[in-house]
Amino acid sequence: QVQLVESGGGLVQTGDSLRLSCVASGSIWRISSMGWYRQAPGKQREFFAGITSGGSPNYADSVKGRFTISRDNAKNTVYLQMNSLKPEDTAVYYCKARAVVITTMSEGDYWGQGTQVTVSS
User: Fold this and answer.
1) CA 62, CA 98: separation in Å to the nearest integer?
2) How many CA atoms within 13 Å lie on the side-chain side of 62?
3) pLDDT of residue 116
4) What are the Cα distances from residue 35, in Å, to 55, 62, 97, 108?
5) Per-residue pLDDT tens for 97-118?
6) Within 13 Å, how many C-alpha atoms sit on residue 36's CB side?
7) Using CA atoms, how far apart are residues 9 and 19, in angstroms rounded to an integer?
């Protein structure tokens, strides 16, 4: 169907930057929205950044002004530029794509396997 692979996570210090990427592949007819979620230890997975097929972003208040989401539709890729990282940003970061697959022409949500981001104080 659709596979999503995130990359770019790692261990950084407070104030540092990281750029995550997520590439979608498979039997894709169309990808509408794409987004980033994160899950910190002991907490539920939460949405914090999304982008429409037309490039309109939206952010949770916790990351607004520090994170920037973008996408390259030709490459089925979504990016997340994270600046001014804080220890509370430590989490596993997941990307999600809402896509229509060629085989069934039905729309569904697909998730990546996650990438760890750790911010030390």
Assistant:
1) 23
2) 12
3) 98
4) 11, 15, 7, 14
5) 999 999 999 999 999 999 999 9
6) 34
7) 8
